[in-house]
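Project standup — Tuesday

K.O.: blocked on the structure for the chain from last sprint. Re-posting the sequence here as requested.
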Amino acid sequence: MAKLSKKRKVAEAKVDREKLYALTDAVKLVKEVNTTKFDASVDVHIRLGVDPRKADQALRGTVSLPHGTGKTKIVAVFCTPDKEEEAKAAGADFVGLQDLVAKVQGGFTGFDAVIAMPSTMAQVGRLGRVLGPRGLMPNPKTGTVTMNVGQAVSEIKKGKISFRVDKYGIIHAPVGRVSFDAQKLEDNANEVLGTIVKMKPSTAKGIYMKSVTMASTMSPGIKIDPKSIK
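H.V.: unblocked you, prediction finished:
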């Protein structure tokens, strides 16, 4: 087991592993116990009482963070020539079809989000091996397969994020950076958590939100009391 740094030991001592913190207190504490020199990402990890193997419980969706993620996403758009200018005007970083497909097939993955027009999905589908494992395959449920490519690009650039439950029943989602003030982190976290609460499948039995943890990169996790979520 790796030896903890002095900074990390101090951070660990400030977090009570057994306590469930109110969200308001958790966002203040996550800033206080950050041990990185860079502007670390702050994420929430939600363990749900769902069975991801069942189609109606394999939750996925999107949410627009009120204060953005603190990082401007690099967006690739697969579209027909008549939509290229619309995508570029909205801020898309990579736009095209055949050439872009070939570039990605060749190993290029310099983007954080992918949008595709419905008519391009036959070609984009061939990129499943590259995009699938990174959670980047466009999907109508997340609004990333659409004719309105400009609007989709704009929303992602402003802070719209996608999330999906993994095979362990956990959703991981960014809610900002440690440089954000506590209120902005709280607003973003409430938006994510509130959205997931509303998505509870009718077939899910028992406790739905089993645990919620907030953490910044390389810092200790802080357990949040689900009752404190607005």
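K.O.: great, moving the ticket to review. The two ends are 38 Å apart (CA to CA). The chain is about 30% helix and 20% strand.
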